[in-house]
């Protein structure tokens, strides 16, 4: 009979599916059914909601201390103006370019000299550098950068400069001797004449006797030329000491004759003579230093007396003049024996 009470034309919204008491009993919790907001008992019975707990292990990130920077080891940055760095870079590049060009020029020069040596072309003499209008021609070939090894070029140049200073000192000695003669110094004529002789003879003789042997010794590592240089240069140093002393009649002005002339009241000429004596003293010191330095080169080069003797014997045997003289001597001996045999 209850199914007859249902109105089929009723709105479905009016039908409450939860109107069934059985459904209400299953879906509605008892707490909500009996809840009374104005009843304090329900508030006491209702447990507070609990937060969810997670049993995850704690995560540790190592040392959590804040990072610190040591000011002594911290990098420092210096700011430079852009324009200054560009200019410095341009100067550096320019210097490198100039150095490369200089090295290229030196290499070209070395290659030309090497080609000249390989082709066995004779080298033209260039020393002494006489002018073109001079009637004499150069007698020697002199080029330290081409003939002398690199490790010995500095020493060769020092010896060459000392030889030039020696020639200039002899010229100044001649001027002082002429001033001494003009001022009426005692023995001025002898001093002036001997100074002219020194100026004419000693520059070429010193070049041939001790500078040229050293040049050949450094060029060819020649023991014979080393010994020849040491022998002559030692006496050159002794004579240089006598020149600086200024013994009257020796041909040089030095400390003694300069001091004696200063006592006569000729201060200007005496000052010139003292300057000449100082130059001779400087030459004495420089020559002693050079002798020690060249002796060091001699010991490090492996030269010895036996090598000097063998070089001398080889040079004498290969000399054309010696060979011609020996041939003439042998021929004369043979002729004399033939003549003596014919007489018998």
TrEMBL record:
Question: Is Membrane a UniProt keyword of this protein?
Answer: yes
Residue ranges, compositional bias (Polar residues)? 23-35, 53-69
Q: Name the Gene Ontology biological process terms.
A: protein transport
Q: Where is this region: Disordered?
A: 1-69
Membrane topology, record value:
Multi-pass membrane protein
Bilayer-crossing regions: 160-182, 188-211, 223-247, 267-290
Similarity field:
Belongs to the SCAMP family.
Indicate what this protein is called per its UniProt record: Secretory carrier-associated membrane protein
What is the protein's species of origin?
Clytia hemisphaerica
